[in-house]
Design brief:
By secondary structure, the chain is α/β, with parallel strands linked by helices. The protein has a single domain, classed as D-tyrosyl-tRNA(Tyr) deacylase (D-tyrosyl-trna(Tyr) Deacylase, Chain: A), CATH 3.50.80. The strands form 2 sheets. Strands 1, 2, 3, 6, 7 and 8 form a 6-stranded mixed beta sheet that branches. Strands 4-5 form a two-stranded antiparallel sheet. A hairpin with a 5-residue loop joins strand 4 and strand 5. Helix 1 packs across helix 3. The longest helix is centred in the last third of the chain and has 17 residues. The model has no long low-confidence stretch (mean pLDDT 96).
């Protein structure tokens, strides 16, 4: 799985003008399931993200995890994280998992965050979403479970 993490003051996702999900201080997590991913991989990714020390402590240092900081998460499916830009000018997306598999893994990932005690909301899989956020820092990080 691939995930793009953005530490946010707030984030929201709308579909057709209706608010679908939101978070206050915490993380906006754009996530993409890849072929061969599993529920175990989704759980491992959720655990890793929950423990990343990327939130400021009282001294202003990035020493707190999402759990320690009491933050929440907004998880949005983002198949374009699988874009292959190696040939030409039109991205290819064959590196993303098939929609049914991707949706199941996306929802499992969000539930795994909840199971770790993180208040988590989601976007709407497959929808044309409008995502807004206030990036805090800015802090933006990329995780790919295939990288180790």
């Amino acid at each position: 799985m691939r995930a793009l993490l953005q530490r946010v003051s707030d984030a929201a996702v709308h579909v057709d003008g209706a608010l679908i999900g939101q978070t206050g201080p915490g993380l906006l997590i754009l996530v993409c399931a890849m072929p061969g991913d599993s529920e175990a991989i989704a759980e491992k990714l959720a655990e890793k993200i929950s423990k990343l020390r990327i939130f400021k402590d009282d001294a202003g240092k990035m020493n707190l995890s999402l759990v320690n900081a009491g933050g929440s998460a907004l998880v949005v499916s983002q198949f374009t994280l699988a874009a292959d830009l190696s040939r030409g000018n039109r991205p290819g997306f064959s590196g993303a998992a098939k929609p049914d598999e991707a949706k199941a893994l996306y929802l499992h990932f969000a539930q795994a965050l909840r199971d770790l005690g993180i208040a988590t909301e989601t976007g709407q899989f497959g929808a044309d979403m409008a995502v807004s956020l206030t990036n805090d820092g800015p802090v933006t990080m990329w995780i790919d479970t295939n990288d180790g």
